[in-house]
Amino acid sequence: MKVAITGATGFVGSLLVQRLHGKGHQIVVLTRNTAFAQKVFPSEAFANVEIVPYTPNASGSWQSVIASCDGVVNLAGEPIGEGRWTPERKQEILNSRKLGTQKIVEAIVNANPKPTVLINASAVGYYGTSETATFDETSLSGNDFLAQVCQAWEAEARKVKDASVRLVILRFGVILGNGGALGKMIPPFKLFAGGPIGSGRQWFSWIHVDDVVNLIIQALTKPEIEGVYNATAPNPVRMADLSQTLGQVMNRPSWLPVPAFAIEALLGDGAIVVLEGQQVLPKRTVETGFEYKYPNLQSALTQILN
Length: 306
Known about the structure:
Elements (H helix, E strand, L loop, with lengths): L1 E5 L4 H12 L3 E6 L2 H7 L8 E5 L17 E4 L12 H24 L6 E7 L10 E2 L9 H14 L7 E7 L1 E4 L2 H11 L12 E2 L1 E3 H13 L5 E5 L5 E2 H12 L9 H8 L4 H4 L3 E2 L2 H5 L9 H9 L1
Parallel strand pairs: 1-2, 1-4, 2-3, 4-5, 5-7, 6-13, 7-11, 8-10
Antiparallel strand pairs: 9-12
């Protein structure tokens, strides 16, 4: 296949490019920073990777490369867990997803021939937060800021179906691997100062980065996969369990809680990402027969940390 990928230099995207390249596929990396992309994917090691500069929120000549592709994977979006959610920051978070997806869909609709599939990222933030409810792919959306972002993001992606292009929306949980959210949690544990964040009772719906990449590849290559799938492991945990398991795997104590007010002081409204969670089950994902390499937190953290 020939696959165009946005967000290709990121945590998930870079591993996806490596995996697809290793399987002999051709990849078009759509990037705002070609110099950085060339460092991540040097031509001598990534002969099948073409790096194309693009402006995510604007139409342009970059859109023409979509016509030669079999599939598109849209992973781009401003990080949500970094810094305070000022009104400007919230607008960036929304626009990077809504407008970015709009321009990708525009490129697909105008392409001749068209790609056969769009894999579009979304997030479990779609469901809102709850300590008691359980959510699967059929659950209604929440109404907080992140839920509204996910609704707008997915609404833009759905427009690709008007062009008879297969659409797969993957609602990502917290992705665990070398980097990402876990990268921020490990240093306090190394210093014997780790512990649960906030009450510890909030749900933590997670997935190992290897399983995310395998899920994307399954969605690209299996034409029967269509619609919304939760990209989460089948065994979500509470924050206190996450801390305890992380402490066990690292052979460190996990008794020093990080109080909610400290996170709120740092992140403002953005603290909702870590202080409130949702218990999300990958019902449709499991029904496809997808086999998780890391269905349990202990095995996932052991692999990452060792």
